[in-house]
Amino acid sequence: MDRAHLRQLRRVLDLALICLLAGAMLTALEGLLSSVYGALIAAASVLITIYCYRRANREAANSVAYYLWRYTPIALFALVPLVVYLWWTGEGWSAARLLTVLRLTTTFILPLACLLYADRGLRRALR
Q1: Which of 28, 58, 80, 103 lies at a 20 to 30 A Cα distance from 73?
Q2: 12-to-5, 9, 41, 108 alpha-carbon distances in Å
Q3: In whole angstroms, what is the distance from residue 92 CA to residue 87 CA?
Q4: Interval 59-78 mean pLDDT
Q5: What is the dihedral angle through the alpha carbons of 57, 117, 83, 47, rounded to the nearest 10 degrees?
């Protein structure tokens, strides 16, 4: 594979990560806010994610700054809401809540982890 093809694959991975983050935000907000506010918040999260990814791509691949810029949107828009949902909702572990966590894990957390792993492999291949 040449460098141009590897860069194109990284762009596709970036788009997939951004879509997953936007989908997670919309899913988390669908019951809390009206659809207009949820779409605005999801759009803001996409813009922040794009900004962070562009800043990360300007940094050296092995630097701490690269990883901070790269993983900040994921922590901010995916992991923090999930942790808040799991620990501060005040509900016990019912079957419905367990199914919700399982759905989030299989439709969001696991694909996100796979994409991040593939992105890291592509970044190494570019070096």
Answers
A1: 103
A2: 11, 5, 23, 17
A3: 10
A4: 82
A5: 30
